[in-house]
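Re: that chain you flagged

S.,

Sorry for the slow reply, it's been a week of failed gels. I finally had a moment to sit down with the sequence you sent. For the record, here it is as I used it:
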Amino acid sequence: MRNFADKLIEEVSRKNSALVVGLDPDLEYFPDYLLEDVDLSSDESIADAIFEFNRIIIDAVADEVIAVKPQLAYYEVYGSFGIQALERTIAYARSKDLIVINDAKRGDIGSTSAAYARAYLGKGTMAGDMVTVNPFLGSDGYMPFIQAARDNNKGLFLLLKTSNPSSHELQDLQLANGKVLYDMLAEEIEKLAGDSAGVHGYSYIGAVVGGTYPEEAAKLRRALPHSIFLVPGFGIQGGRAEDLSEFFDDKGNGAVISSSRGIIYAYRNQRSDWSRIVESELIRYVREEASTAKEQINAVRFHKATR
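Prediction finished late last night. Pasting the structure tokens below so you have them in one place:
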């Protein structure tokens, strides 16, 4: 069976893009025209607006990105109607030949993780191609995802060194052997990834490494030669394009860079009257920002930084 990492790397090459766009729909940032007929007391009505927004974003960025990454919290908050919006979004993204990464950050005891794995890496309408997984409950929490990814020819990203400012409070804890926690986890990931590499040298078992931590990324790139990095934090969270070379290997592979708010709400930085824009303007601003981000990433991913 084909390793999903091979598909991911081949899509990066085919589209000359390592960009992933996060789909984090927040009504507060929607233009007025999308909310004109929305009943804000109705989850069903809101969910319809969310899907419509996502459809527009997907159409705008489809030529510039390899994947979309729905952040599930923005859908779950609207209950079953929000989940339906997620399912419709996944189906629409696939109709545009985009990879779907469900940003779920799931992880639990073994039996529960197995159920989560079926939900997000199985055959159902909520399943994507990849999922983010919280590994901090231990191996019985993440191994069911690895098995499901292997069985269904899909992939996953294990949280390792995340982009949020407080990640150091736990992830950087020094252990009795002198190593920090994320280093020890990286060693465990490499044991699994090294045994499941595809023809391009990478495994379907990836890792989340925040774009706000380039020095840590350089060390982790060496420690995890077989894991593709999902790199959040580029843009609004403070990750800089010039630091992204640390996440890639010498061939420009090994990482996909995620940007959410900086792209899907690009119009908010372009117009003081952004709430009054029309659909054609929304599409133009979003497409231009995605194209710029793609080119910024391409400008550095083939050139390793020296430190």
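What I noticed first: Strands lie at 19-23, 67-70, 99-106, 130-133, 155-161, 203-209, 227-231, 255-259.

Talk soon,
D.
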